[in-house]
Description:
The structure is a homooctamer of 225-residue chains.
Chain A: H1 12-16, E1 22-23, H2 29-42, E2 46-49, H3 53-59, H4 64-67, E3 68-69, E4 74-77, E5 84-92, H5 98-110, E6 113-118, H6 127-130, E7 141-146, H7 151-159, E8 164-168, H8 180-187, E9 194-196, H9 202-219
Parallel strand pairs in A: 1-2, 5-6, 5-7, 7-8, 8-9
Antiparallel strand pairs in A: 2-4, 3-4
Helix pairs in contact in A: 5-9
Amino acid sequence: xxxxxxxxxxxxxxxxxxxxxxxxxxxxxxxxxxxxxxxxxxxxxxxxxxxxxxxxxxxxxxxxxxxxxxxxxxxxxxxxxxxxxxxxxxxxxxxxxxxxxxxxxxxxxxxxxxxxxxxxxxxxxxxxxxxxxxxxxxxxxxxxxxxxxxxxxxxxxxxxxxxxxxxxxxxxxxxxxxxxxxxxxxxxxxxxxxxxxxxxxxxxxxxxxxxxxxxxxxxxxxxxx
Amino acid sequence: xxxxxxxxxxxxxxxxxxxxxxxxxxxxxxxxxxxxxxxxxxxxxxxxxxxxxxxxxxxxxxxxxxxxxxxxxxxxxxxxxxxxxxxxxxxxxxxxxxxxxxxxxxxxxxxxxxxxxxxxxxxxxxxxxxxxxxxxxxxxxxxxxxxxxxxxxxxxxxxxxxxxxxxxxxxxxxxxxxxxxxxxxxxxxxxxxxxxxxxxxxxxxxxxxxxxxxxxxxxxxxxxx
Amino acid sequence: xxxxxxxxxxxxxxxxxxxxxxxxxxxxxxxxxxxxxxxxxxxxxxxxxxxxxxxxxxxxxxxxxxxxxxxxxxxxxxxxxxxxxxxxxxxxxxxxxxxxxxxxxxxxxxxxxxxxxxxxxxxxxxxxxxxxxxxxxxxxxxxxxxxxxxxxxxxxxxxxxxxxxxxxxxxxxxxxxxxxxxxxxxxxxxxxxxxxxxxxxxxxxxxxxxxxxxxxxxxxxxxxx
Amino acid sequence: xxxxxxxxxxxxxxxxxxxxxxxxxxxxxxxxxxxxxxxxxxxxxxxxxxxxxxxxxxxxxxxxxxxxxxxxxxxxxxxxxxxxxxxxxxxxxxxxxxxxxxxxxxxxxxxxxxxxxxxxxxxxxxxxxxxxxxxxxxxxxxxxxxxxxxxxxxxxxxxxxxxxxxxxxxxxxxxxxxxxxxxxxxxxxxxxxxxxxxxxxxxxxxxxxxxxxxxxxxxxxxxxx
Amino acid sequence: xxxxxxxxxxxxxxxxxxxxxxxxxxxxxxxxxxxxxxxxxxxxxxxxxxxxxxxxxxxxxxxxxxxxxxxxxxxxxxxxxxxxxxxxxxxxxxxxxxxxxxxxxxxxxxxxxxxxxxxxxxxxxxxxxxxxxxxxxxxxxxxxxxxxxxxxxxxxxxxxxxxxxxxxxxxxxxxxxxxxxxxxxxxxxxxxxxxxxxxxxxxxxxxxxxxxxxxxxxxxxxxxx
Amino acid sequence: xxxxxxxxxxxxxxxxxxxxxxxxxxxxxxxxxxxxxxxxxxxxxxxxxxxxxxxxxxxxxxxxxxxxxxxxxxxxxxxxxxxxxxxxxxxxxxxxxxxxxxxxxxxxxxxxxxxxxxxxxxxxxxxxxxxxxxxxxxxxxxxxxxxxxxxxxxxxxxxxxxxxxxxxxxxxxxxxxxxxxxxxxxxxxxxxxxxxxxxxxxxxxxxxxxxxxxxxxxxxxxxxx
Amino acid sequence: xxxxxxxxxxxxxxxxxxxxxxxxxxxxxxxxxxxxxxxxxxxxxxxxxxxxxxxxxxxxxxxxxxxxxxxxxxxxxxxxxxxxxxxxxxxxxxxxxxxxxxxxxxxxxxxxxxxxxxxxxxxxxxxxxxxxxxxxxxxxxxxxxxxxxxxxxxxxxxxxxxxxxxxxxxxxxxxxxxxxxxxxxxxxxxxxxxxxxxxxxxxxxxxxxxxxxxxxxxxxxxxxx
Amino acid sequence: xxxxxxxxxxxxxxxxxxxxxxxxxxxxxxxxxxxxxxxxxxxxxxxxxxxxxxxxxxxxxxxxxxxxxxxxxxxxxxxxxxxxxxxxxxxxxxxxxxxxxxxxxxxxxxxxxxxxxxxxxxxxxxxxxxxxxxxxxxxxxxxxxxxxxxxxxxxxxxxxxxxxxxxxxxxxxxxxxxxxxxxxxxxxxxxxxxxxxxxxxxxxxxxxxxxxxxxxxxxxxxxxx
Lengths: 225, 225, 225, 225, 225, 225, 225, 225
């Protein structure tokens, strides 16, 4: 195959407010190396998601130990400077949701946004959640990560005033159907105004949060420039 | 068609602890009249479920106004005497779940069991539920009725010690998929030991509750006779 | 059935920033009348969605002609005063999406938010969209309404910087599968940070937009009180 | 990732009548070791389900040979004392259902409940079942485990008076669809009052049985304390 | 539209051993009248299935009362003479399966084959079935008709030696999924050598039975001519 | 709702080679009247598809009897002049496919293309097809219309050299699943190079055929101008 | 786990006309060895299906090279004597269907029935089939094996008079959906009287064929003894 | 198994205009070697698709390095001479679609057709596409390859006049559902006259393009000979 299979979108940040993020799954090591090369030439930081440890090792980036996070399967190369105001809360139902929590947190870091994680507070032990619900007021946007039936999104939706981005995860088995049940449950939440992204899509949730923070800071009274 | 299309199972009570209940949907008025006739000959009370108002009227039973309940679409003909000990709580998420709540309550009444209903306490307004959760201790068995994403079952499962029978309802639209989403969400509840019946199956939930009450009273120390 | 089947959540606004909205489908005229009565006693405005014309007429509200909108199948009773700052753009792909556009617009009106609609600009005639894309900069939040394959969301996602709430509609036939295809297409959009709500859920999209506007005005530098 | 991803629910037993059980799938060895450590500190026994042999070995528990059961893929660490009254029968359709039967039995053991298993009595050779049906009277609760089309649940439902918890298994191929067919068949059983849990969920069935036994002994005449 | 939309296959009997049967659903009255006319010209009897009462009346055939059967929704016009040897047993689970039983019986009658029906013997009351199982030995082929979870097919398959044609019906609701659950359950029956046709396809089951009877009488020792 | 919900795409013909066609389903009579008005002003012919007889009557076009075809549910208003060279064959499996055949034929007529229909030649009576297969050589493009399992597409694909556009129809019941089975069967045809459009999409098949004919006449040696 | 997990059904042959066949998938080597032991004690031949090469080797049967067939993944141990009259034709669409063809052929051999295979005659090259269709008259029963869209079943159904057992295979990708498309296509075949078994179920097709041959020889005029 | 499992269709080219292509998946090395042998005897070039590197190596063809392309997983053995006029454009959405792009390009090469590829121009960065849209006028047929939601097909459909063959790919996760979402989105495209083939079916798209080019050159004014 010829080498014309890659066209990076370096002016996406100009257009939509945040840079392109590289989806690692299904790309060959050769393709990824060429992508990294282009970023290096532009002297821009790069985030690759869905990158397994073996492929990450093959890319041989500097300071690999810090650059690659095996839980979230993300590789972040380069320095992040800009810091967008606001705080995103990432709240998860169970320990097994950690990879998706991680993908969201790493993406926010790459996009220059602060986040805090509150993990393993699913509704099976709802007191773990209710005990600290008032403290969630510090978040400007909430990302809710849950597998199985995803009921955490509904409970948060009934209690919080912030925008809530629900991320169904593929955690579960049988009727959980690879995350489809959590996905559809979150979409049909009886709680109002819940927003949903694709299964395990921590990265997309983070980008949506950035759109909101951009709107909060630039979009409002002054208009967007 | 010949008339050999009906074989009622009058000794089911002997076998499984409760009588046959007639499923009205898909049966012709002619078939239902012949069924009623057989019950009348045996001098037994009868419950018909999934019976629309028009067909109910065509059956012309005595005291139709009391016998037929249009909300639950059930027809109960005959006197109920026996009273099985125990109290079943029927807890529902929303106003639109009333027909299923009704089917469960009417079936329990037919089977000689007391029930109480607690309606419209879904998790979108979770305080409505938490405010009275301690009072649910009076129930021996809990039937939880909910449509949309059915998160009520998970919340109850994390808070109550009783057997919980979750009934998904077809209330909802789009990704609710006629109740499939609530069904699968309940089956994959992160809360432990939740039991599930078919969509809108208030009648089945009631029968399962009766199996449990039978077990509680007869089955335990003395054995079943 | 007893009359304990309705428990309105009048302090939801306190909690989540906007009042409860009544979902009309599956509720009986009798239930809806009792709900209206409770709102009247509290002297609060009320919005009922998914209300067909026949049921709306049976409710016999004052000034029914203005109160009931047959396109969006919504009934809005009472005066709206408060006006939350910000402008929501509702952009739709086709003429047949009008009911969902209407539900979103009416819900925003009920919640005191201004909106503008840009209809029938689907990607089959993409110049209709590109010609006016710069003008969309005036929107603080964008709601994108589309049926069939829902490609409009992806195109907007690649061009706009705002938060985008995609509403799949049930417009289409065959493989459109009652809106499931648009739903899944929007969830898997190659454009980044797209948020999705349930099929035909114009009302939910509007509530999510209000969460964002609340966040923009209250949540940011000062914290939420 | 930080270490705040685990919050065990040690007072679940207080609340719902039985302790939390650890779901091993999707948890890293590191996470599981930290979980075991917490249980050890509390001096409580622990059950981990869905734990493959390799991960089990990595946990290096004492007396691993007895603690880990490779058929049911469960690890049970610690002494079980309390014994709840009652006997649960676990009846399965085929030899290949053994892992799910085992998960149910091990969970019951962990929860202090006696059980007996009756395996490989599926309806293809229905005499194997009918020959011993009377002896099932000794069970207070019946767990029915079956894959393929799961017809065993319907046959038991027509013959037994006890509460029946049906567990569909993923045994089968093609149209068995990973257990979905058995699941839906059990949910739509023509036999009355059948209760269903998720595919392969032997653990959940056991917990539901414990809820029932708790109800039978504490819940009935005296109330629950 | 031109009139070239109908090409009847009058030599199908020559080829496959039985004549074409007209599928009424989706055909206009005009099309059906032209079809009847062609049969009349050929002086052949005709069977139309899936014909609702209104359309049947519009066709105005002679002796309509006998020709049209409202339960099975079939119209049989003309005299049947030939009688193929053999007896087909049609065994059904419930009263609501009567239309499919009827379609099979009417089709067999049209194809010159004797049948007997045994209805309402589903496994919820399995003694109704076991009591008469020995008498089923008189059947050369068994057609088993059942909705809900279709467990009757598995029970028959474990007890009978004949070829068994299972017909799932659309009787049921919720997870019965319009007959898909019975269909898939029958396909994955643990009983051996069960054959399945489409949902509600009584007509197809009858034609398959005729193929078998043809094979039994012509195909065996002498070869087919 | 405001009147800005319609933006017709009058220069689509310039762009893609054929004019916009109006999809009638889900549009109100009021919307359709405004659309007709716009076409009248431009003095252009218009085709409306998926228009039921009642709505068609409400539009009160001139010469309604010729303009509206009830079988294909299409309304064609205005004179067609241009005639694109080439002949499209529309081959269908059964009499019940006539509405889709009609929609394709009417669309081709509107787009100025000649077509011939060969109906009711499904593979159940394959000689009807094989007898005339050589005559199909006169077609430049073949549209194959079939419901149920859609096997006609595979047989044609193995015998013909032309481009074949397969249109699955919703004809069938049960496992036919509203046309999904024919759709997926055509997509997985063992015959090579079969192209597929949406279920019942006769109109789309016609437009695809026009793209091909445009390509054949303009696109080839001379390039497209 | 205790050793009571196996109950072989040695009098199945008495009841249904053919012995139990062991389904290897999901059974442990230990379980299979105990099964083989029981057969050896009874001095009966045994067939194990769905047995991969590695597990087969672990069973260490005599004359393993002949006993185990790697294509059909079957192990046949013991001498087959009885020979049931009749000839079964196994006709397949493609080379990749060979494992299923093999499973059917091996099962027939185990059950004492002669078969012939006609492979790779799918409808993409329909002349391969039509050229030899007359020779198929020698078969008493036809088993049709096909993946992808399974159109071969429809073509055979329109041409042959014998009972036809269609076996969908999991050959194919994408919309073939693991054999579901072929399965549903065969169930909705426009050809009449086609019978269907589960995906890849060559063994079940063979058992159904034996039921038919039993019926042909014993069941007919003399009755079954 | 006997060796009669392969019947190559060497006169397919005569019939449908292009030779048979060998589908490698599911065929054993032994089967593939016998197939190659038959082609060698006929002195014909052969293309094998879906062939993994390991199996390719086992076939030991001459000049393997050029013959086997690991990206598209195709093996092309033999000299291609004939060159059909016309140019096919293969336009893809993302870098990960390269294998499908490659399969289409290699198949076209095998069939003697020139193609050009335009990769990584998905709608997330739509300017990459719009910048060069006018240059696409040089293509006679367009193949559009896209995963995720496949919106590229709709955008191209609204801008181009050529026949468009949309190939959904299995690139994506979660709700992308292995390519089903792109497949259904392309089928329901609001753009007109889009044609669709199976998921990842680059080979089928190429064959369909050849049918069109054949039609363009032979089929038009002169008829096909």
